[in-house]
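This section describes the prediction task in plain terms. A model, or a person checking by hand, is given the sequence of a single protein chain and must write out its three-dimensional structure as a string of tokens. No templates, partner chains or ligands are provided. The sample shown here is typical of the held-out split.
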Amino acid sequence: MTTYNWLTLFGVPGIIMALGGFILLQIRQNKAMKDGMKAMLHDKLLCSYRTCYRKGYTTSYDRDNFECLYIQYKALKGNGVMEDVRRRFLALPLK
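The expected answer:
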């Protein structure tokens, strides 16, 4: 067998399999990173709401920060629970 035959037999399919495995690994890791980031944003949004709720008011900085986090949370396909929390957060008096 020539070198070309060996490469055709083992090289090209091996490279394709390796690339396919690498791509699948990257897809799984990307999904895990997105899910982790979404969970952290969810936690931070709830903590921000609870802190301001206990104080009884929000500041413009609190609202800007909450909105910035909320936009990114929605971009990651966050669930509808945060929409209710956002409405309650924005209903708090501004000081």
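For orientation: Helices lie at 3-55, 60-75, 81-91.
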